[in-house]
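Lab notebook, bench 4. The sequencing result for the construct came back, and we need a structural model before the next group meeting so we can plan mutations. Quick request posted to the team channel:

Model the 3D structure of this chain.
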Amino acid sequence: MKKLNLFILLVFILSIFACSQSKEDVIVKTGSSKITKKDLQEDLKNLPPQTKAFLTSPEGFSRLKDELIKREVLYEEAKKQNLAKSEDFKRRLEEFKKITLINMLLEQEIKKIQDVTENEAKDYYEKNKDQFIKPTEVRLSQIIVSSQEDAQKVYERIDKGEDFAKIAKELSKDSKTKGSGGDLGFFKKGQLEPQLENLIFNLKKGQVSMPFNRKDGLYIFKVTDVRGTAIEFEQIKGQLMEQLKAKKQQEWFEKYIEGLKSKHKIEVNDKALEELLTQTLGVSKQK
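Done. Here's the predicted structure in token form:
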């Protein structure tokens, strides 16, 4: 199954190759179209290592050849049926061009972002050591509500920055813990039911869980403290640098988009958009 998935990826990559008129050695020729060495060379270099290894095997070579032949005969048949003249093809082509240009722009601009250095990762680690603890005990607070609607109200208030304990006192239906802001104290591994333990011990200090469904209601937990063994920086350096890089890229992207919004004139016909949603999806905009 893994090999099949790799080949789906490969076929997708090959499907965007243009027909070349180069005089270089032709790999596959079908009718008026052909694939040359040059067409394949650069793109094969960019394949994942696992795929490359598979393609060097006799089975991989045979599958590659077969997929190239399939692609070319299908392409020839599509041309024969004049599908390139259809409005649907023109629409899809324009959409593909738009997506490709967007990707090229982002690839170009994102190169300007400096990589996260080891010193930056180390500094983040030192300032946030409580995030890098392998927990053996966690302190929990809870809010118990009766419905998804009530749970949504809790999360909306949390998202606005309201104190979890304050919300628990006001909304939790658990009379035993609401007075203390939902505090349950510390729990060691093995003291909670397996499904709940798996949920709780994967949360970091300060994080709030998704609703945990029980017979008497929906439970929302917050890890308020963690006790355990500190994870050494060297153990997570690579992973942390990747996480910080992704965060930096996300922050850059949001700022970049806001800059483009102020740079370009934007007009949106809300009425037409709402009518389209109503006609196509059978729903109207929520007020």
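Strands lie at 26-30, 33-36, 133-145, 183-188, 212-214, 217-230.
Will bring this to the meeting.
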